[in-house]
Amino acid sequence: MIIAVDGPAASGKGTIAKALGRHYGLPVLDTGLLYRAVGLSVLKAGGDPDHEADALAACGFDDAILGDSALRSEAVGSLASRVSVHQVVRDALVQRQRDFATQPGGAILDGRDIGTVIAPDADAKIFVTASVHVRAERRYKDALAHGGHPDMDSLIADIQARDTRDMSRDHAPLKLAEGADLLDTSDLTIESAVQRAIALVDAQLEGRPSGVTR
Ligand SMILES: Nc1ncnc2c1ncn2[C@@H]1O[C@H](COP(=O)(O)OP(=O)(O)OP(=O)(O)O)[C@@H](O)[C@H]1O
Ligand SMILES: Nc1ccn([C@@H]2O[C@H](COP(=O)(O)O)[C@@H](O)[C@H]2O)c(=O)n1
């Protein structure tokens, strides 16, 4: 069984994907980490994330970088968004994601193009979203909790810039996949968002109408 979880930055898709993983007993891949690893590798190599050849060269990153806490920063998220516009970068990462998706027993992947490109035939697809303001507030709280000094206006601007780039790029833009259910978490607690996601997945697996517009 493959479950695809897509959505914009800080929508809560990773939280939901992990909870679905625990509920269904499936391994989870946060595919954004792969793009973040490419972005951070370009930075470390002194390259230009907007330059296709520099971004491609960074795709051969050492997997040890996946454990680097620097990957989680908003700055690296922005670099990831810039390298991810290059088709050559997406091509370099696609097989790794498909191998994870098709492992025996099934898998859950979260990202931007899981339901559209990586696993278009996934058994269940959820598109998680939330308002820009709510997403920025979540980042704000995260940064405070980690001892940072976040600025709400910059967080809103970063999220809007990332949304625009991710949704308007030529290759694998972020959009609602065919057959995906929309889950707006703006007014939901984590617990209720997870319960709603489980109900949507169960309904899709059983071929029942989920009660939301597709
Ligand atoms: N429904 C919710 N209510 C409140 N906080 C939430 C909710 N869902 C997620 N969060 C919190 O918001 C933050 C971002 O969530 P998460 O990392 O799951 O988002 P994401 O979409 O995977 O982000 P990324 O852009 O890093 O991929 C986390 O601190 C998480 O605990
Ligand atoms: N399947 C994916 C996943 C991510 N990206 C790009 O990486 C950026 C960082 O992703 P996070 O989920 O960690 O926030 C994101 O803004 C996308 O540009 C992607 O293209 N495809």
Automatic annotation (TrEMBL):
The keyword Manganese does not apply. Residues 3-201 form the Cytidylate kinase domain. GO terms for molecular function: kinase activity. Its main location: cytoplasm. Pfam families: Cytidylate_kin. It catalyses: dCMP + ATP = dCDP + ADP; CMP + ATP = CDP + ADP. It is an enzyme of class 2 (transferase). Its EC number is 2.7.4.25. It is found in: Cytoplasm. ATP binds at residues 7-15. InterPro entries: Cytidylate_kin (IPR003136), Cytidylate_kinase_dom (IPR011994), P-loop_NTPase (IPR027417). Keywords: ATP-binding, Cytoplasm, Kinase, Nucleotide-binding, Transferase. Gene3D superfamilies: P-loop containing nucleotide triphosphate hydrolases (3.40.50.300). The keyword RNA-binding does not apply. Belongs to the cytidylate kinase family. Type 1 subfamily. HAMAP family: Cytidyl_kinase_type1. This is Cytidylate kinase. It comes from Sphingobium naphthae.
